[in-house]
Amino acid sequence: GKGVWDIGLIGAEPQRAETIAFTAAYVEIEATYLVPAGSRLKTIAEVDAPGVRIAVAGRSAYGLWLDRNIKHAELVRADSLGGATEQFIRDKLDALAGLRPGLLTDIEKLPGARIIEGKFSSVQQAIGTAKKNTAGAAFLNAFVEEAKASGLVARLIEKHKVVGRLSVAPQA
After folding, report:
1. How big is the CA angle at 120 (ends 143 and 164), to the nearest 5 degrees?
2. Which helix (DSSP H) or strand (DSSP E) does residue 78 occupy?
3. How much is the pTM?
4. What whole-number distance in Å separates Cα of residue 20 and Cα of residue 8?
5. Which segments in the chain show pLDDT lower than 50?
6. 3-21 b/e with 16+ CB inside 10 Å = b?
7. For 52-74, what is each residue's pLDDT tens digit?
8. Is 35 exposed, middle or buried (0-12, 13-18, 19+ CB in 10 A)?
9. What is the pLDDT of residues 18-35, one digit of tens each?
10. In which element (H, E) is residue 143 found?
11. Could you tell me the CA-to-CA distances from 44 to 4, 8, 12 in Å, in that order?
């Protein structure tokens, strides 16, 4: 809303869509939880329970999803992804919410920690622009569909060796 950027590669979320025009997703990224060694939490459903504290990057796409969907657990918000991980460790929180590729990196620093199987959400990574930029939005929509159809998105995932259940989104 401040006119700081023209386009952004960002998770498409309903709250953001109030001011941002999104393309269809170009990739889908699983969001799940990392739990510390010895955690009693075994499933995604067990995390949303009274007394459970979840570290999360506050304005992340999956954080916005958790804001709408967590009913019993407490969300402990940090200003950044790194901040959420630090808070999870420092405050001995019960779970760290994140995108599976990032959690696979975090787990290397946490002996005995594990990632809960499954996902609580999939982030629909898309390109966004200001809603008033209708011509730009139309161009970006066509670009994303061509990038998926041509194999460009798949080649970039492979080239950058992204792991952790990240996949090319289906054609719109």
Report:
1. 60
2. strand 74-78
3. 0.86
4. 10
5. none
6. eeeebeebbbbeebeeebb
7. 999 999 889 999 999 999 999 99
8. buried
9. 999 999 999 999 999 999
10. helix 134-149
11. 37, 30, 22
